[in-house]
Design brief:
glycosyltransferase activity; Glycosyltransf_2; alpha/beta; Glyco_trans_2-like
């Protein structure tokens, strides 16, 4: 399979510079998509429209823009985007992250080597401000069995790295609204449907982080959203009540500690070179 789509969602609070850096990383891929679906989640700024217009011309008919009249949220936007993709293989990408130039090539190879594979992700390196300033890595489990066990308490995929089969996503009911956990909710339903999973043991995406991200993950309002999202995951039956209580308790502690300490927890404990069954 050499044909694949890239799927991303854009909304009006995103930074032009970040989107350009993201788009350039897609243009520089050793295996470039033959379709590039960009969901405009509600009206955008003139500045963002100008960026999209420019890359629409650069990609010469490859970019497909899907315009939503109002901001509908990431889950709804991605669900519409999946349906708009013409290819069976779809690569997710966040508009503020950067793909390493052989990311798509290596994921396509994984699907070529295993006809049963439904979803394939990778590790990530997290950076602040400049892409050379890597502050942490998020290491995830590699095999189908390890991934499905790990998913009960933490995401076994770095969502901005995944490539998946459209048919497997639609079979699981596609993306649905689940604020904070749109991807998590989809992974769980795909796993319940028997989707075969894999992660490539390389950091093939540079993920943008910073004080703003750590601040957004603090406070009672964020915790309440997290708790409600985990309740939705609990209702799927994939996780136990103890899994729910454990994760909500940990998140409560993380949410109420000062932002400076929270950043350190993410960098040094939650994300930095996590051990996963002996993998570093």
């Amino acid at each position: 399979m050499n044909k694949f789509s890239v799927l991303m969602s854009v909304y009006n609070k995103e930074k032009k510079e970040n989107i350009i850096e993201c788009f350039e990383s897609i243009m520089a891929q050793t295996k470039r998509p033959n379709e590039w679906v960009v969901v405009e989640d509600g009206p955008l700024t003139d500045e963002l429209y100008a960026v999209l217009d420019n890359y629409e011309k650069k990609t010469k008919g490859i970019m497909k823009r899907v315009r939503l009249e109002k901001n509908s949220g990431l889950g709804v936007a991605l669900g519409i985007g999946v349906e708009a993709c013409a290819n069976e293989l779809i690569a997710r990408m966040d508009t503020d992250d950067i793909a390493i130039n052989d990311r798509f090539e290596k994921q396509l190879e994984a699907f070529d080597n295993d006809d049963m594979l439904d979803i394939c992700g990778t590790y990530i390196d997290e950076f602040e401000n400049e892409k050379d300033n890597v502050v942490a890595s998020r290491i995830v489990p590699l095999t189908d069995l390890e991934i499905k066990k790990y998913q009960r308490r933490r995401d076994a995929f770095n969502h901005m790295t995944v490539m998946f089969k459209k048919s497997a996503v639609l079979k699981a009911g596609n993306y649905k609204a689940c604020p904070l956990m749109e991807d998590t909710y989809l992974w769980v339903r795909m796993m319940q449907n028997g989707a075969k999973c894999k992660n490539i043991p390389e950091s093939l995406v540079l993920a943008r982080v910073g004080e703003g991200m750590y601040e957004r993950r603090g406070g009672i309002m964020y915790f309440d959203k997290y708790r409600k999202a985990r309740r939705i995951i609990l209702k799927t039956g994939y996780i136990t009540s103890w899994d729910y209580i454990y994760t909500v308790f940990i998140q409560f502690i993380v949410a109420i500690i000062p932002n400076r300490i929270r950043g350190g927890v993410y960098k040094r404990i939650l994300h930095k070179k996590n051990k996963v069954n002996g993998q570093h």
